[in-house]
């Protein structure tokens, strides 16, 4: 599971109102290499919940001097875009689980795929 | 994929039907690969995404990632959802670029509002029309899926579903739930006169009334015979030059409420009283 996806995921259990962001408890993390596409990264940055991204990076111990607030005029700062690219698309959680901040319900992650299947009563 | 004699949805629920054996077939059968790739290509074409721009897309029922591979090739980034672990294992084995999620689309999509630039789904939606468990109600599941999809899509985004509808009732069920969730759009039918090549694509627009693309036909289509069924939830008349509704008209009010719903705000339901003309002394 990449952090870009994590930034979009919430708990969709019935009755949960504050199911975002899901707390990451990772036991295995991998860093891949992916081709850098500055256009895509600049387009995605406004969609991101920046504080959730920083928090997720901290949980995975991959903070690596990412600013705690978005800098203005980031489209032209290539170094910044590369850092964001790395944290969004190259860092992957392979094993672990995601925990709902409201209910504590856990969604396990296995082989990099989070299991979002709900039970009968959810 | 439905076989010529029996429909897979009648044999078993999707997570059972797509076991390791069936999943292997997908990764090795060249004809299956070819057909799935062709349908993915057509679906992306119908999405009408802006040119030369990498987009963030959702692939519902991504399976072994055949459609996802096409998205990657087209330069897009994607997230795939599927209910079968065996199929997702094949996708992992094939090292697809998209991020995969194990989930049931009938339970709703677990995303924040307005995230995706588009959504495709190849040969998956018909699985929602069958009740695989006693607790399943197909219309409810379809609605839960469409309403969460509607909110997950960015403003003006499209969702294209390639489906194999069993009969017109099933088609009616699907389209009515989609409309209920707020989508507009219609069916695009490619090669309607060939039983073998005929393909159904359900094109849904989130928020903006778009022009429905024309279905492909091997015969030239200037006979004026329509091969599309179009449905719109609103009639917008007398739009101004920019194509936007006249301010404060009923259409404008409905569109604005839709926009705010998509932003995740609480909006009163649309009733027959919405935007109704009131007496001057009101």
From TrEMBL, chain A:
Domain of life of the source: Eukaryota
Record Pfam families: Trm112p
InterPro entries: Trm112, Trm112-like
PANTHER family linked: MULTIFUNCTIONAL METHYLTRANSFERASE SUBUNIT TRM112-LIKE PROTEIN, UPF0315 PROTEIN-RELATED
Assigned protein family: Belongs to the TRM112 family.
Protein name as annotated: Multifunctional methyltransferase subunit TRM112-like protein
Organism, as annotated: Cirrhinus molitorella
TrEMBL record, chain B:
Domain (Methyltransferase type): residue spans on this chain: 58-131
InterPro entries the UniProt entry points to: Bud23-like (IPR039769), Bud23_C (IPR022238), Methyltransf_11 (IPR013216), SAM-dependent_MTases_sf (IPR029063)
SUPFAM superfamilies, per database record: S-adenosyl-L-methionine-dependent methyltransferases (SSF53335)
Gene Ontology cellular component list: cytoplasm; nucleolus
Domain 18S rRNA (guanine(1575)-N(7))-methyltransferase Bud23 C-terminal: 204-280
Basic and acidic residues: compositionally biased ranges: 248-257, 264-273
One family name in Pfam for this protein: WBS_methylT
Catalytic activity: a guanosine in 18S rRNA + S-adenosyl-L-methionine = an N(7)-methylguanosine in 18S rRNA + S-adenosyl-L-homocysteine
Subcellular location: Cytoplasm; Nucleus
Major localization listed first in the record, in broad terms: cytoplasm
Renumbered residue ranges of the record's region Disordered: 242-282
Highest taxon, organism lineage: Eukaryota
Biological-process GO terms, alphabetical: rRNA (guanine-N7)-methylation
Gene3D superfamilies assigned to the protein according to its UniProt record, in alphabetical order: Vaccinia Virus protein VP39
Gene Ontology terms, MF aspect: rRNA (guanine) methyltransferase activity
Annotated keywords: Cytoplasm, Methyltransferase, Nucleus, S-adenosyl-L-methionine, Transferase
Known role: S-adenosyl-L-methionine-dependent methyltransferase that specifically methylates the N(7) position of a guanine in 18S rRNA. Requires the methyltransferase adapter protein TRM112 for full rRNA methyltransferase activity. Involved in the pre-rRNA processing steps leading to small-subunit rRNA production independently of its RNA-modifying catalytic activity. Important for biogenesis end export of the 40S ribosomal subunit independent on its methyltransferase activity. Locus-specific steroid receptor coactivator.
Recorded family membership: Belongs to the class I-like SAM-binding methyltransferase superfamily. BUD23/WBSCR22 family.
Annotated PANTHER family: 18S RRNA (GUANINE-N(7))-METHYLTRANSFERASE-RELATED, METHYLTRANSFERASE-RELATED
Protein known as: 18S rRNA (guanine-N(7))-methyltransferase
Taxonomic classification: Eukaryota, Metazoa, Chordata, Craniata, Vertebrata
